[in-house]
Amino acid sequence: MSASKFPKMLNYAALKQQFSAESAPEIAQHDTHDQQALSFEQESEKKSQGLTGTRLRSYAFATLTRKEYSKVDLIEKLCLYAADRNEVIALVEELAHENYQSDQRVAEMTVRSQIRQGKGPNRIKMALRNKHLDKSLVSEDLQDIDWYAQAHQLKVKKYGTEVSHDPKTKAKQIRFLQYRGFEMDAIMKAINKKTDDFDK
User: What is the pLDDT of residue 72?
Assistant: First the structure.
């Protein structure tokens, strides 16, 4: 018979090299996933062990250097990584006593930030509650602010200086300022007064 009628001999060496190369990325991908899973397990195990003593103190200082926290929020954050809640509470009390942590400071920063964003007293009080801060910490600061002027400034920025007599337009302005957290008396004065009236 003619040799062409028979299949050629398989080159096993070439096939082995070809399939090894094709499966390499898949194997590498599995290895990567295994490494990620192992890393996640190690991290979880590390967290489950819980921080204590010097390690907990170092983590608390590192946390406060990145951001100011209220006492309650700092306790809750540290408890995610600490072994003992009582140790966390004692540490945070110590940090507060040494003024590394300050509810007063956080409250004042919150008020300033909210005012820059054009928020009224109601929204500011809500922001303080969300940070677990007592509004009495900044009660004097809130009383010293001219909320009429703040509301009017916001109204002018959004709708201009013209005093509208259209009920729908007025209602729209009222809703806008209510959403921003202003009281109704400040809102009504803001939308009905001209800019010059605040100088009188």
Answer: 95
